[in-house]
Amino acid sequence: MSKIIVKRYSSLASVNSLRPTKLWWLVGLVLLCLSLLIQLPAAWLLQKFAPNNPYLQQISGNLWQGQANWQINARANTPLAGSVDWRWQPWHLLMGKLGMAVDIRSGKTDLQGVVKFNKTSWQANDFNGKISHDTLAQLVSWQLPDTPITIKEVSIEKNKQGYQAAKGSMNWAGGDLGYPTGGKTYLIKLPTMQGNLSADKASVQPAANANGINTSNKAAQGKSLHLALTTPQAERLGDFYLDQDNMIDVSLTQRLLKNMPAYQGKGADDSVVVSIRQPLTSMGN
């Protein structure tokens, strides 16, 4: 009799061990919700969470993968348009971010990389590709060389305080450029250039009032996106600083301006002879 009781007890114990625990039920429920979420139409999700989005149209696919057309107003009456493909990378959720591998195209421009974002920050990681002449011509009203800018391993991280990290390089073969200003067009033969990205402290000192008190905490706290232009031999040509308020500081050296036939200035090659600060949106006008 005792043997029968022991057998029944052991069989009941084995059955109970096969039953899923509450933890496994929870894991299964989470996986079910995720599988349903990634199958929702991307157009419906965008309408739900960004109903006033002016940039994306003709959206197809779902959260897992899809495609959309995009358009931005790079300059007045000159929209820049293209398409984007995305593939969701769910493991970025472990870091509290939505991450996707993207392929961005516009004309002959083609860039591939990974974007990650949440409510307070965004990242663009490991971008490679090229920005073509036709895309550059829509960004600025200059006469540009017919050569693309090559992007290599570009990564940028930004939050509310400014640019936190940046790295990567850009290469441009150069050529003849015409820069219109004051009713005239100044010609310059650009040399082959290399640009290196970094996140540095703001290049402009914070504004102060009449009593010498700092009135701009943003400039003191945040970092700027820095593009350092050099020749392939690492000789300085200029610097661009973009802050979190989309103000850009431009410094150009004597070495670069010597390539302009109309330029008559003299000085050390590394000396800065042009220094301006203006909104990024006015750069190409």
Write the layout of secondary structure elements.
Blueprint: H1 2-18, H2 22-38, H3 42-49, E1 56-61, E2 65-75, E3 78-88, E4 98-106, E5 109-117, E6 121-131, H4 133-139, E7 149-159, E8 162-172, E9 175-181, E10 184-190, E11 193-201, H5 217-221, E12 223-230, E13 236-242, E14 247-253, H6 254-257, E15 272-279
Antiparallel strand pairs: 1-2, 2-3, 3-4, 4-5, 5-6, 6-7, 7-8, 8-11, 9-10, 11-12, 12-13, 13-14, 14-15
Description:
The radius of gyration is 27 Å and the shape is elongated. The protein is 20% helix and 46% strand. The termini are far apart. By secondary structure, the chain is an alpha+beta fold. Strands 1-2-3-4-5-6-7-8-11-12-13-14-15 form a 13-stranded antiparallel sheet. It has a two-stranded antiparallel ribbon with strand order 9-10. The chain folds into two domains: 81 residues, no CATH class; 165 residues, no CATH class. This is Type II secretion system protein N.
Descriptive key words:
285 residues; alpha+beta; 2 domains; 13-stranded antiparallel beta sheet; two-stranded antiparallel ribbon; disordered N terminus; cell membrane; Type II secretion system protein N; membrane; transport
Instruction: Quote the average pLDDT.
Output: 81
Q: Which sequence of strands runs across the widest sheet?
A: 1-2-3-4-5-6-7-8-11-12-13-14-15
- For the secondary structure, the number of strands is 15
Major sheet? 13 strands, antiparallel
Number of helices: 6
Strand content: over 45%
Distance between the termini: 97 Å
Q: Residue ranges: pLDDT <50 for 5 or more in a row?
A: 2-6, 204-220
Q: Please write the string of helix (H) and strand (E) elements.
A: HHHEEEEEEHEEEEEHEEEHE
- The amount of helix comes to 10-25%
Give the radius of gyration: 27 Å
Shape: elongated
Structural class: alpha+beta
Number of domains: 2
Keywords: Cell inner membrane, Cell membrane, Membrane, Protein transport, Transmembrane, Transmembrane helix, Transport
Pfam families: T2SSN (PF01203)
Family: Belongs to the GSP N family.
Subcellular location: Cell inner membrane
